[in-house]
């Protein structure tokens, strides 16, 4: 591996910051202490900062030379509402909150890169270090953009990195095109007419309507869209009634839809409206659909994905870079940045969990698991990648 010696030298300092952030997790848009830590470090290294975009976001800018070109490097800072099972020294000190997605590590890796870049400035242009809040469902990236992120800090391209448990340390994964799916929630409320269960002819049974809608909705996935367009529709809740002998008035279905493209999502949403309305009408009931779009699909721009892959190969060797990584149906709010600017999102292997210190929980070291911990061995790898990516982009 071609790690930057200077980063390896100060790795322990960045690791200490990572563990401090891990011990003090903060949820969506509450990352005040974390933003303070980031701001203090950047200021200490002579990097001018801007605070308050997306409430708790921090942007640091490092400049060199005369070029007007600029690159954005993004890390997320928020934690999850989860009780940590690990008992090692840097475990969460905030009950019910935990850095179980490794955003503590993402913040640390970008800080490591910032320190080196501020010291060496071996590039021509501007590097905007974007520390965003609220990736876990709050749309912090979107909030920063709406607050003028790219007007205040124009970027020719933006890049985002996420640790990936299960992939070996020292590997990267990237691909042009879709990396993660759009995430959307729906709720269907069916109104029938309650009756005695022995006298169904006096009522309109919303349970039968719910069953009919649940079955018909799956045809949108199997019979309506092109088979090669990936999508999933999962009904995760069906609620109706609370007695053996009463036909209830109402039934509610809830669930999620994921797609890799917005036109496919449009098609599924309009198909749902049609099926919900007419399935209910066919059985004499009424039904209403509430459909909420959370995150758009995360779609890498081909040129930037190829560029990032080349830099990864320089750092860890071609054999350790997977350039056709399989997309996942998870979602990521970096999608909003990729709608606004060219760029790409990629994975850095977090290993199999063997790095965890004694006292970790019995669960697997997977994202959103209470026994997860970010692998500190990634700090010099991720920080080196950020540095080389910025230096090459602004070379
Ligand atoms: Zn997460
Ligand atoms: Zn995450």
Give a list of the ligands: zinc ion
Strand order, largest beta sheet: 1-2-4-3-5-16-6-15
Going by helix content, strand content and strand pairing, the class is: alpha/beta
| Form type | elongated
The helix/strand series, from N terminus to C terminus, equals HHHEEEHEHHEEEEEHEEEHEEHEHEH
- CATH-assigned homologous superfamily of the largest domain: Zn peptidases
What fraction strand?
15-25%
Top CATH class of the largest domain: Alpha Beta
Can you count the beta strands? 16
The largest β sheet comes out as:
8 strands, mixed
> Helical element count?
11
Unreliable stretches covering 5 or more consecutive residues: none
CATH topology of the largest domain: Aminopeptidase
| Total discrete domains | 2
Helix content: 25-40%
CATH architecture term of the largest domain: 3-Layer(aba) Sandwich
């Amino acid at each position: 591996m071609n790690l930057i010696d200077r980063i390896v030298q100060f790795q322990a300092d960045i690791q200490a910051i990572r563990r401090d952030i891990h011990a003090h997790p903060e949820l969506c848009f509450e990352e005040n202490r974390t933003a303070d830590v980031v701001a203090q470090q950047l200021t200490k290294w002579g990097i001018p900062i801007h605070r308050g975009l997306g409430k708790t976001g921090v942007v640091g800018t490092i400049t060199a030379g005369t070029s007007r070109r600029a690159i954005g490097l993004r890390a997320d800072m928020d934690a999850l509402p989860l009780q940590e099972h690990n008992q090692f020294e840097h475990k969460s000190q905030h009950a019910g909150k935990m850095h179980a997605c490794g955003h503590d590590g993402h913040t640390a890796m970008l800080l490591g890169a910032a320190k080196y870049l501020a010291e060496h400035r071996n590039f021509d242009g501007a590097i905007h270090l974007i520390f965003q809040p609220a990736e876990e469902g709050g749309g912090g990236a979107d909030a920063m953009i709406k607050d003028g992120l790219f007007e205040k800090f124009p970027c020719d391209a933006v890049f985002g990195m996420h640790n990936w448990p299960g992939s070996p340390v020292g590997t990267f994964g990237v691909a042009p095109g879709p990396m993660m799916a759009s995430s959307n929630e729906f709720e269907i409320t069916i109104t029938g007419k309650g009756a005695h269960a022995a006298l169904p002819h006096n009522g309109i049974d919303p349970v039968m309507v719910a069953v009919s809608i649940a079955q018909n909705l799956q045809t949108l996935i199997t019979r309506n869209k092109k088979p090669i367009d990936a999508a999933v529709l999962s009904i995760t809740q069906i609620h109706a009634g609370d007695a053996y002998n009463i036909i209830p008035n109402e039934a509610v279905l809830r669930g999620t839809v994921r797609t890799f493209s917005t036109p496919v999502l449009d098609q599924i949403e309009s198909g749902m409206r049609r099926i919900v309305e007419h399935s209910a009408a066919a059985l004499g009931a009424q039904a209403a659909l509430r459909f909420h779009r959370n995150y758009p699909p995360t779609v890498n721009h081909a040129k930037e994905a190829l560029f990032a892959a080349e830099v990864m190969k320089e750092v860890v060797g071609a054999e350790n870079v997977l350039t056709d990584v399989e997309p996942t149906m998870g979602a990521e709010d970096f999608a909003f940045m990729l709608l606004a600017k060219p760029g790409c999102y990629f994975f850095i292997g977090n290993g199999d969990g063997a790095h965890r210190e004694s006292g970790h929980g019995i669960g697997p070291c997977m994202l959103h698991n209470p026994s997860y911990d970010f692998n500190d061995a990634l700090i010099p790898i991720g920080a080196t990648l950020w540095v080389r990516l910025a230096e090459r982009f602004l070379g």
